[in-house]
Amino acid sequence: MTLNNHSDTYYDILIIGGGPIGLACGIEAQKAGLSYCILEKGCLVNSLYNYPLNMTFFSTSERLEIGGIPFVSTNVKPNRSEALEYYRRVTISMHLNIHLQETVKEIIPEGNFYRLVTSKGKYRTKYIILATGFYDIPIKMNVTGEDLPKVAHYYKDPHFYAMQKVVVVGANNSAVDAALETFRKGAEVTMVIRGGEIGQRVKYWVRPDIENRIKEGNIKAYFYSTLAAIRPNEVDVLTPEAKVTIANDYVIAMTGYQPNFEFLRSAGIHLSDDEKMKPIYDPATMESNQKNIYLAGVVCGGMETHVWFIENSREHALIIMKDIQEKNMKMAKARVS
């Protein structure tokens, strides 16, 4: 569909991000009878695809459901492969209009509309939903040697690290999973932890496991410590007592991830001026400070990436669609009068 003789493809709503919440927004737009397109720069549910191969969700399957479609799992807590299959089946069975491997490069206001330029085309729309997540940009340690090939900010599979000397930076779920899995593949694992304990948000069935491995000495842990430097065959760890140098083959830096703040700013979204950098939006409608641009999912938390999950942000799709429909009704009444 084209608009006002422009060659740009027009949709009532453009949804940026093809994760679970972006898909949920597409489902609600479809139910409302509005034209929409989901633009995803990677593969379907790209963030979930990049999770560790053996990752198990904290949530039960019914809390990961979208669009009222049952998520049947053989486990109490579904795993990564089950989630990928579920969201793929939802996308196909609902005939969701999604463009994969298409990056949004620019959002340009044009009167009461927005023009989007992507890696594959140009679009115009009345409404935009940003459901871009936070998993694309790792939080850097900013230490010497962080750019060496031996350093990974994403952890996928433990086999690669078998019989290697591995340093895992961090103490939350991703770091603990990496430490335990690589240890069980025969790696010599050392954890470098900024605080004084394993993170409080670590899955309750995993926490005793890592604490016991540390207590018995099978996994070495430096608490109240940071990585000071990385070299090809060793690393420096700054501990409360002194700087310690240990032999090392690989560093798995599970230091967390952050939303693409540069992209949000380029879209005109204001961020809080504190370290949380939360995007500004109205919780009652999910509309940002930019008219007709909405936020959905974990991107709403800024640097507090542990606040929003699939299970508690699914409702964003309903809230947004309700507001869009109310706006459309008001405009229709205004035209009649």
Task: Note down, in words, how this protein is organized.
- By secondary structure, the chain is of the alpha/beta class.
- It folds into 2 domains: 9-137 and 257-336, FAD/NAD(P)-binding domain (3-Layer(bba) Sandwich), CATH 3.50.50.60; 140-253, FAD/NAD(P)-binding domain (3-Layer(bba) Sandwich), CATH 3.50.50.
- It is built from 8 helices and 17 strands.
- Strand 12 (226-231) and strand 13 (234-238) form a beta hairpin.
- The longest helix is centred in the last third of the chain and has 22 residues, at 315-336.
- Mean pLDDT is 94; it is low at 1-5.
CATH superfamily name of the largest domain?
FAD/NAD(P)-binding domain
* N-to-C series of helices and strands: EHEHHEEEEEEEHEHEEEEEEHEHH
- Per the principal axes of the C-alpha atoms, what is the gross shape? elongated
Q: Provide mean pLDDT, rounded.
A: 94
Name of the CATH architecture of the largest domain: 3-Layer(bba) Sandwich
Compute the number of strand runs: 17
Number of domains: 2
Beta-strand portion reads 15-25%
Low-confidence stretches: 1-5
Helix coverage percent: 10-25%
**Quaternary status:** single chain
Distance between the termini: 27 Å
Query: What's the tally of helices?
Result: 8
> Which structural class best describes the helix and strand composition?
alpha/beta
CATH topology term of the largest domain: FAD/NAD(P)-binding domain
